[in-house]
């Protein structure tokens, strides 16, 4: 038995693909842990100093920011990972330059338009949600939209180049550290949700400047100072639009609960729900790190029609997700009161059952593996689009019915049920298309 274990470990050390995944994801995981800690520190500081009302105001503004920036990017941030990875493999460096310049121009133009729309409709949106304090949050986020959209495009470009150190530095770890610092420096007395919005915006501005420095540096090193070359941008758009639709539908599913809690309930309820939701996402924080490395690798295997390599990387991710997510899930399910009272402040009893329900959806998301990444990066964007469309509709209806009756617990049930559904369906589609089982199952049961 011991000999078999030693043999398995030896094979793992010799597996260059696995070592690349672990080395790269370990770096991203480090920054993800940093981001999680900084993000929760930011959440706790706003929650304690500005109250659940102030934190709810920030989260509603942040929701608007996330929705608009996803639409503003038109799916190009996802497509650019796929195409940049392929161009680098083919050594078509000029196409990488051209693709980035076109994508950045389009994203900047579209984001400016949407930022103006949010700015001028801030008062009307605040009245719609029944909160007089939301107008400043929406106005502040309108100023951040173009910078945030370009920051994410730059980060995804660096991920396509497999520059994971640069990519990691541009993630929430660095952003939330900056947000914590600026919130501490510039908060009022008492602190407000607007102070949190402003602090977040300052962090985005600093990282955007850093991201452009990284992009220019990588052009000189990775791309040999290549000049812009012709690229079929129409083909890129045809790939990006289904990804935009899938991403938008995923975002609708992710933020429908927050928007509806904001509509049917108070800012304080939004603050409590989002606080509990962020705690639940600790279960999948490692999955983000793994998937960040896996996405360009999946794209590369797909471009070479290497199903064996694709199967291998998905299996490896499944086991890593299991090892990293399951212990956190067990703690959250068995000791939810301790988790919330340790992390939060004030009355958090209303979120105990909510945390347990959300934890179920998160652990299923982790255990199913990178199924949506696999579909999107392998030419099956429309399949993932259809999955997300039907799931988003179910999520909307479920939130509409359950939140008025059950409050934030109803939002948690609707969100977790939707997350379980789309993961199960996507897992089945990956199996049907590639004959790959993405779940962490014993070695002898795998498809050979």
From TrEMBL:
<feature type="transmembrane region" description="Helical">
    <location>
        <begin position="352"/>
        <end position="375"/>
    </location>
</feature>
<keyword id="KW-0812">Transmembrane</keyword>
<feature type="transmembrane region" description="Helical">
    <location>
        <begin position="21"/>
        <end position="49"/>
    </location>
</feature>
<dbReference type="InterPro" id="IPR002797">
    <property type="entry name" value="Polysacc_synth"/>
</dbReference>
<feature type="transmembrane region" description="Helical">
    <location>
        <begin position="236"/>
        <end position="255"/>
    </location>
</feature>
<feature type="transmembrane region" description="Helical">
    <location>
        <begin position="97"/>
        <end position="122"/>
    </location>
</feature>
<dbReference type="GO" id="GO:0005886">
    <property type="term" value="C:plasma membrane"/>
</dbReference>
<keyword id="KW-1003">Cell membrane</keyword>
<keyword id="KW-1133">Transmembrane helix</keyword>
<feature type="transmembrane region" description="Helical">
    <location>
        <begin position="409"/>
        <end position="431"/>
    </location>
</feature>
<keyword id="KW-0472">Membrane</keyword>
<protein>
    <submittedName>
        <fullName>Flippase</fullName>
    </submittedName>
</protein>
<feature type="transmembrane region" description="Helical">
    <location>
        <begin position="319"/>
        <end position="340"/>
    </location>
</feature>
<dbReference type="InterPro" id="IPR050833">
    <property type="entry name" value="Poly_Biosynth_Transport"/>
</dbReference>
<feature type="transmembrane region" description="Helical">
    <location>
        <begin position="199"/>
        <end position="216"/>
    </location>
</feature>
<feature type="transmembrane region" description="Helical">
    <location>
        <begin position="387"/>
        <end position="403"/>
    </location>
</feature>
<feature type="transmembrane region" description="Helical">
    <location>
        <begin position="167"/>
        <end position="187"/>
    </location>
</feature>
<dbReference type="Pfam" id="PF01943">
    <property type="entry name" value="Polysacc_synt"/>
</dbReference>
<feature type="transmembrane region" description="Helical">
    <location>
        <begin position="275"/>
        <end position="298"/>
    </location>
</feature>
<feature type="transmembrane region" description="Helical">
    <location>
        <begin position="55"/>
        <end position="76"/>
    </location>
</feature>
<feature type="transmembrane region" description="Helical">
    <location>
        <begin position="134"/>
        <end position="155"/>
    </location>
</feature>
